[in-house]
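Problem 12. The chain below contains 331 residues. Write out its predicted structure in token notation.
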Amino acid sequence: MLTETNERPPTWTWADQISSYRFWGMLIFYVLTISVLFATSSYIFQLLDRSLGATRATIGTLMSARYIASAFGFVLAWIAIKWRPVVVLVSLALLCMLGQVFLLYGGSPLWLRFAGSILVGLSQGAILLCVPAIIAGGRNGAEAFLVSFGILISFGTLAHFIVEPLLGKCVAEWGYDWVLYVSLISVALGTLALLPVKRELFLGDPPARGYALSPTKRDPISVAFLFFVPFYNWVWLYRAHGEVAAVAPSRSLLSPRAALIGSIFVPFLFPVAMASLIEALNRQQISHGQSRRHSPIAIFLWVVFLTPVAAAMIQSGINGLMTEHPDQPTQ
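Solution.
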């Protein structure tokens, strides 16, 4: 008889997720579908008004059908997470593109525009629910939920505010047909980014990630001052994640590459990554019967207000672990 523990699928830490293309592929897909579709919605009313020649009440009803249909996207989202998420998401993207053509193509009759509006609403609502649900399905703890969804929402919001004025410029220069073109291109690109994602997503075992680097002792004060040199912080962050992985391996650590790329493109990830370094060092200290070095919260706050101090504290922890446990195996 299987126990509940044996039946439970493996969980991914936030570092597991962010160190995998599965997360970033889902993120790109989400941004290029949901965020861009929201950005184009403000122009659709004007496009329909110009091309359809119907009353504003008719156009309002047409757009209402889209938003009402989005509520029923729950059904498709449920099917996606229970069946083959990547296959269903690709299908939803194609459905969305077809709906956009029906809705926005100049020669479409009114009934076909209503069908297109419903298709866009269904697919948009399903994707809006499905992507966060898939990411949440692989999480392990509140921190993973906060970091993963923080990245998802931050990128989505940023994309919306970038795309909307750019789309407005396209419309001003080349006409309202660009609302359709931008919608189709963005969803198509998002679908391409999704195709390499492994179909099991976050239900299987987290893949082996990253690699260890040979630890190097550095003077903490020198590290602090070097943080004022442009780009040194990225070099140190990359090295620190590889070196801590050697002396204090932990699944809560990002791979060196994920720490570097993620912190460049997601600024709030930098203090989280720094705090995870001291957490790994603390766990290693405790495993040797010693007290922890610094509080992760203190490191997080130092990163926010005075990053060089946090770097010096972490470097001191790496040096101390190398000195006190020189026989610590590296990977």
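Discussion. Residues 220-324 form one domain. Students who got a different answer should revisit the alignment rule from Section 12.3.
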